[in-house]
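Recall that a protein's primary structure is simply its ordered list of amino acids. Everything else, from secondary elements to tertiary packing, is in principle encoded there. The following example makes that idea concrete.
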Amino acid sequence: MKKRVNEDGSEYVYNTGNPYATNPWFAAYNFKNNTKRERLITSLTARYNFDKGYFIQGRIGHDGYSDRYTNVLPSGTAYYAKGKLSEISTNFTDLNSDVLIGKTFKVSSDFKVTPNVGASYRKTKSEIFTNGGSDFVAFWCL
């Protein structure tokens, strides 16, 4: 099955009754499915303990990434001869933060209770851009 293309550069089809049974050699050398991700995850916690068991604590965390996905179905593919291209870009951010104020009470020699009050905040943003095209016509000028 190593033959992958015909003389004109189109996919060499082994199963002529089913054009969706893609020649694996043609797919391996001609299809493109790439994802590139850049990601940063951060977190920070700060806590201050006062006298008599009181404390205040703040935390913040951030997760952000950018994806770029590219898919090329080349011209000459048996089930879609004119080819397709799609590109998807995603930008995502998620911010979480909270603050707690509390006090630790010693109930017995091996048991403590720490009631607290606090607040939290979350902001999530996602943007997705999709571009695509199909039925390409290629020509060269000399």
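Helices lie at 24-30. Residues 98 and 119 are 6 Å apart (CA to CA).
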